[in-house]
From TrEMBL:
<keyword id="KW-1003">Cell membrane</keyword>
<protein>
    <recommendedName>
        <fullName>MADS-box domain-containing protein</fullName>
    </recommendedName>
</protein>
<keyword id="KW-0812">Transmembrane</keyword>
<keyword id="KW-0217">Developmental protein</keyword>
<dbReference type="GO" id="GO:0048367">
    <property type="term" value="P:shoot system development"/>
</dbReference>
<dbReference type="Pfam" id="PF08137">
    <property type="entry name" value="DVL"/>
</dbReference>
<dbReference type="InterPro" id="IPR012552">
    <property type="entry name" value="DVL"/>
</dbReference>
<dbReference type="GO" id="GO:0008285">
    <property type="term" value="P:negative regulation of cell population proliferation"/>
</dbReference>
<dbReference type="GO" id="GO:0005886">
    <property type="term" value="C:plasma membrane"/>
</dbReference>
<keyword id="KW-0472">Membrane</keyword>
<keyword id="KW-1133">Transmembrane helix</keyword>
<comment type="similarity">
    <text>Belongs to the DVL/RTFL small polypeptides family.</text>
</comment>
Amino acid sequence: MAETKESAKLERLRSAVRQQKGKLYIIKKCIAMLICGSPKCVFSCTSSVMF
């Protein structure tokens, strides 16, 4: 029983981590786009933006 609760808690933590990583990815792309000024430039600018 304790193992099941621990497993469920671990899965919730993994889900929260995935959500946070997704949010940070979007924020990173938005900042890069603001710096570069063009959506086409996002991929070439992200390497110069330090995160």
